[in-house]
Task: inverse folding
């Protein structure tokens, strides 16, 4: 089980590197064909729209971290709960932030892929004093 969790943690690190780089080729191999994301303000993006943010140049990250990750396995599916911290620009606007992320992963063809994710903005960075 620990080996499986490490495989999922490694997947998360590959995903974060691809997001930081805006690497649509790498992301394309990590996302399922029917990938769906719920964004920070409740908007929904399908796989094509998620990748288009990078291919259009609209989204650029100066930093992108995936931390505090907890893995829960359910057979050929898994839930990764973690914190995404980013310093980013989207269409010329600052979109820096810290987000609690729920990633929904599935094992298909012998490898893990990201089927969906949901972002919720965090007011205070984890580990910082709470108001």
Result:
């Amino acid at each position: 089980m620990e080996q499986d969790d490490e495989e999922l943690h490694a997947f998360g690190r590959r995903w974060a590197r691809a997001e930081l780089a805006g690497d649509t080729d790498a992301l394309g191999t990590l996302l399922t064909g029917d990938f769906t994301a719920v964004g920070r303000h409740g908007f929904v993006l399908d796989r094509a729209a998620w990748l288009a943010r990078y291919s259009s140049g609209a989204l650029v990250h100066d930093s992108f971290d995936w931390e505090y990750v907890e893995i829960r396995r359910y057979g050929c599916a898994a839930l990764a709960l973690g914190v995404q911290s980013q310093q980013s620009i989207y269409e010329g606007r600052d979109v820096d932030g810290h987000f609690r992320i729920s990633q929904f992963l599935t094992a298909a063809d012998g490898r893990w892929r990201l089927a969906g994710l949901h972002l919720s903005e965090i007011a205070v960075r984890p580990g910082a004093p709470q108001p």
Q: What stands out?
A: The longest strand covers residues 59-74. The chain has one domain: 2-121. The helical segments are 2-21, 24-30, 47-55. The beta strands are 31-38, 44-46, 59-74, 77-90, 93-94, 97-108, 111-121.
